[in-house]
Amino acid sequence: MSTPPQDQPLWRPNPERAAGTGIVAFQAWAAQHHGAPAAPLAPTASDAEAAARYAALHAWSVEDLDRFWTAVTQWFDVRFTQAPDAVLADPAMPGARWFPGARLNYAEHALRAGEQAENADRPAVLHLDETTDEPLVLTWAELRRQVGSLAAALRARGVRPGDRVGAYLPNIPQAAVALLATAAVGAVWTSCAPDFGARSVLDRLQQIEPVVLFAVDGYHYGGKDHDRTEVVAELRRELPTLHTVVHVPLLGAPAPEGALAWDDLTAEDTEPVFEAVPFDHPLWVLYSSGTTGLPKAIVQSQGGILVEHLKQAGLHLDLGPEDRFLWYTSTGWMMWNFLLAGLLVGSTVVTYDGSPGHPDTGAFWSVAARTRATVLGTSAAYVIASRKADLHPGRDLDLSAVRCLGTTGSPLPPDGFRWIYEEVKEDVWLASVSGGTDVCSCFVGGVPTLPVHLGEIQAPSLGAAVESWDVSGRPLTDEVGELVVTKPIPSMPTGFWNDPEGTRYHDSYFDVYPGVWRHGDWITATSRGTVVIHGRSDSTLNRQGVRMGSSDIYEVVERLPEIAESLVIGLEEPDGGYWMPLFVVLTPGAELDQDLIGRIRTSLRTELSPRHVPDEVIAVRGLPHTLTGKRIEVPVKRLLSGTPLDQAVNPGSVDNLDHLRWFEQLRQERERAAAAE
C-alpha cells in the first residue's frame, strides 16, 4: 500500500460499518431522549461532515455533563440497586461528587453476560502463554462459578467491604477472577506484576496494608521460568496485616506453609453474591511512578470506573459480544484493568502471559492470529520494534479477524502509522490512544466513525473536556501546549491513599492551573479536531507504557559503593524510540568498567524489574542541583530534547551551570553522530 499525501487520511471507515457502530446508535437514542445533537451519519458523508458530527456530540458531552452521563448509564443499563440523588452534585476539581446516594457493584456488571443461558458456554476469557499452543478457555459460566466460589471464601475468612486485597500475579485468568471476587465483596483490589522486585512491591502494598495476598510461585517469560518464592516469602514477612495468602502454582510448586491453595478456594459451585456499595466506594488502587518519593496510591471508584469503561469500551472501541479483545499488558499497568472492561460489554477477553518478543519479535502478532482477536492493542514501542525487525505480520499470519489496532504507552510516530497500514493490514482502524493511570482511561483516542490521519489521534473522548493550554492558561490550536482537562471525569481519583487532606492529590494535578487538571503531556489540538501527543512534559519515566519512578532507580544504584550519585532520564525520540540513559557520578578511584555496568544492570533487574534497566550507563563529573540540593531532572530532559539552556531552566536556580552545559554538549554530539549515519 502506498502512503497517501499528508493531508489525506490513511484510513476511512466503511460507510456501512460506521453507520452500524454503537456510537452512532447511542447518538440517535441520546438525541431522542437526552437532548444530544441529532446528526444522522449519511453513507456519503465527507471527512469534514463526519468530524463535525462527532465534534457536536463531543461538545454536548462536556457542556451538559448531567445529561451525557445519565445517557451513558441508561444506554448501558447500569444497575443501581439504589438510585442516585443527582448526577454531578459538585463539579469542583479536585473533589467532584458523582452520583451521590447511588449503590451498585462493578463485578455484577462484569459478569452479567453470564446470566444468560445462551452465553454459558461462550468464552469469557481466552488465555495463552509461552508454553501453550492452544488457548485455555474460561467460559462465562465457569468465570461466574469461580468468582462466586472465591468471593464466598474471602467472606468466610473475614474479608469485608473496604478491606484491601493485594495480588502478585501475571496476566492470567486467575488474576481476573481474583479482582472480580474482590470487587464482588466490596473489598479494594491492588496488583503488582511478578517481575517487580520485593522492594518495589512493598513500596506500594505497605501503604495500603492488605489483609489478603494472591501470589504466584513464579512465571514464564522470555523462554525461562522465573522463581518468585523468595520474593513472596519476603512480602509475607514485611506485610504484617496479612491474614490470608493464596498460592497460585504457575510453576507447579506446592503451597508454602500457611498459604491456601487456589484450587481449594475456587472449587465450589457457588453463584456470586454482589455487595451493593456507594458509587464512590473504592474499586482498586493503582500506583504512580514514584518519581519524587513513594508511588502515589491512586484510588478509583467502583461507579466511576464502571461508567467510564462502559463508555470507552462500548462507544470508543465499539466492543460487543462478538469481539475478542486482546491488549498486551501486565498487571502492573492500568491497561490490564482496562482490558477487563471488555467483560462489561460482553466481549471475550484475551489474556497473554509472556514476552511479546519470544521466541522472536513477532510473538504478539502470532498471539493475535491464534486467538482470532478482533480488537488488539500494544505499545508504540512494540510497533517500532516490529518495523525495525522487518516483520510482515499481515503477509505471514492470518489477521483477517482484526478490525481495530490500538496503540498507547508513548506517542506513535508517523513511521509507526505507515508501517501498520503497509505491513499489518490495509483496512484496519488504528485507534492510537492516550490517557493515564491517573484516570485508568483515555483522554483522547479512537472514534470508529472518523478517518485516521498520519501521526494524529482521532479525537478527544466523549465526556473529556480536553484542551491545550499555554503557560498563562490560554487555549491553543495547532500549537504545542499542556494537556489539561477543564471538567471532571467520573474515573478521576477519589483521592490518594493516606492523603487525608488531599494535599498530594491537589499538588499532583491542580497546582499549575487552579481547578483544572494538568496531566503532564505536551499536546497539539489541531484545527480539524485531531490530537497529537508529544510526550511527557515532566520527568516521569514511561517505558513501554509502564510509568516508573526515578527514585526507585536511585535507591538501588546508589547502594553500590562506586556510585556517589545518579540521574536517570527517559526521552521520547523522533523515530518512536525511547532512550533511557543513567548518568552516574563515581566515587574517588572508581572506574565505570564493564564489571560495574554489569552490576548496575543486575541490581536494577533483580531488585526492581527488567524495565528499570537503562539503555546506557554514562559517567559524568557532576550533576546539577537546585539551590536546596535537589537533583534536577526536568531541565536535563529538556536539554536532551533540544531546548536551549536559557529556556530549559532558570539559571539562578541551579548550583552549577557547567554540569547542565555538559548535557547540552551531549545532545549536540548525539545529533552530529545521527547526522553522520
Automatic annotation (TrEMBL):
Residue ranges occupied by any Acetyl-coenzyme A synthetase N-terminal domain in the UniProt entry: 54-110
Enzyme Commission (EC) number: 6.2.1.16
GO MF, one example: acetoacetate-CoA ligase activity
Keywords: ATP-binding, Ligase, Nucleotide-binding
KW Ligase (keyword) present: yes
Domain AMP-binding enzyme C-terminal: 555-630
InterPro entries xrefs: Acac_CoA_synth (IPR005914), ACAS_N (IPR032387), AMP-bd_C (IPR025110), AMP-bd_C_sf (IPR045851), AMP-binding_CS (IPR020845), AMP-dep_synth/lig_dom (IPR000873), ANL_N_sf (IPR042099)
Enzyme class per UniProt: ligase
Keyword rRNA processing: no
Highest taxon, organism lineage: Bacteria
Domain AMP-dependent synthetase/ligase, chain residue ranges per copy: 117-488
Signal peptide range: none
Similarity section: Belongs to the ATP-dependent AMP-binding enzyme family.
Protein name, entry field: Acetoacetate--CoA ligase
Species in which this protein is naturally found: Kitasatospora purpeofusca
Lineage: Bacteria, Bacillati, Actinomycetota, Actinomycetes, Kitasatosporales
